[in-house]
Design brief:
80% helix, 0% strand, mainly alpha
Length: 90
């Protein structure tokens, strides 16, 4: 059974976007929370620094959805590719 690339991409994109936004919101309330996270994420995603919660929230949502979608799409594509190769050999 094949996996829908778009469906998995959207599911992981939404999940990663919400996760990144959640950490940003908690950081806005408790500034010490997630400081190392913002150093790491800031090195991967340009513009996220942990200093401006509004900018970080917007960028986190966009980066999270796009990154999660691409990752989910690639996972589903790879799974379907491997599945078709295994089925062809049987």
């Amino acid at each position: 059974m094949k996996i829908s690339r778009v469906a998995l991409g959207l599911a992981l994109g939404i999940l990663w976007g919400v996760s990144m936004c959640g950490i940003t919101i908690v950081n806005a309330i408790f500034p010490d929370y997630g400081s190392e996270y913002f150093q790491l994420i800031g090195s991967i995603y340009p513009g996220i620094s942990g200093s401006d919660p509004v900018v970080d929230l917007g960028l986190s949502a966009v980066y999270g959805v796009v990154d999660g979608f691409v990752f989910g799409f690639v996972i589903a594509w790879l799974y379907n590719f491997v599945l078709t190769r295994i089925v062809q050999r049987q």
